[in-house]
Amino acid sequence: MFHTSLNKLLGIRYPIIQGALGGSTRPVSDATLVSCVSNAGGLGILAIWNQSNSRILKEIDRVRVLTDKPFGVNVAAIHSSYDFSKKVKVLAEAGIRIVTTGRGDPNIPAISILKDHGIKVLPVVATARQAMSVEKKGADAVVASGCEAGGHVGMITTLTLVPQVVDAVEIPVVAAGGIGDARGFVAALALGACGIQMGTRFVATRESILPLPLKEKILRASADDTVVTTMRTGWPTRALKSRFTEEWDKLNKRGASPRELRDFRRMVLKKVREDIEEDTIGAGQVCGMLNDLKSAKDIICEIIESACTIISGLEKTKSNNEL
Length: 323
Ligand SMILES: Cc1cc2nc3c(=O)[nH]c(=O)nc-3n(C[C@H](O)[C@H](O)[C@H](O)COP(=O)(O)O)c2cc1C
What we know:
- With 323 residues, this protein is of the alpha/beta class.
- It has helices at residues 5-10, 31-39, 53-66, 81-93, 110-116, 128-136, 158-168, 182-190, 200-203, 212-220, 243-253, 258-274, 296-322; strands at residues 16-18, 43-47, 71-75, 98-101, 120-125, 142-145, 151-152, 173-176, 195-198, 226-229, 237-240.
- The chain has a single domain, classed as TIM Barrel (Alpha-Beta Barrel).
């Protein structure tokens, strides 16, 4: 059921990807969450931003103990082509065959480096132009991510971005941003996507390593409790509003110097290291429709089951109109 070009490309049962989930002090999508998603028939993606090679290799080994299903890793080409090649070699030697790429330096030939190691590459893009560019460079599929998403964001909504990307490229398109249940899944397929990537929904799961009070914050939040801030990484990122994002806003409005901003960011990181519950957690606008803490498996099963019900309902509506 729901066999698309994505199932075939990635060797997965359902066309559902758990987007990479980095964290301020440690990745949220670690081996536990990734293996649960992959065991449930989706594709789990390990976040490895800022992790040492030995830590990454340990986490990959841990995934392999927990699942024999396909999984992927997320990378960002941020330092230099040389460093990026070294990192990719480590991943390739560890047997990684699927990589999604997040925001990085466009001057680093990330896709060709990954492809040279026989890795399937799915870059995350925020515009149709970026999608065309990564297709030309050899990407196997693209993840079109709208501005309602959690984490790094562009300016275009998922509803308008996905069909534009679908029209612009030949490779499979995965929809991301604002999807949290079967309604979003069916809508994404209707827009021409061959599958979905979800982030925020998987942050608030039983298996995610985030402390319960932070998961509860996401479940209690409304869509307008999120904000796009440069505080976390220097690039626009959607996260839950916090006293720190408000302070950051004020600093920027009064034209604080780069040094003041850097010191503020350091202070925030220190506070978060002392007490993880102070973290400004990345979350998308979809948080407004998430109410319960579920297991990754239940989320995937419910999407597939309810998508069938939605589609039969739509078929009925169509035949009613034909009467
Ligand atoms: C807490 C959090 C951390 C994220 N970290 C990363 C990351 O390290 N790399 C990446 O490419 N995307 C990252 N993302 C984006 C997700 O992989 C995914 O594309 C996005 O969350 C989809 O939108 P949604 O949150 O509306 O489901 C992150 C998202 C969240 C919520």
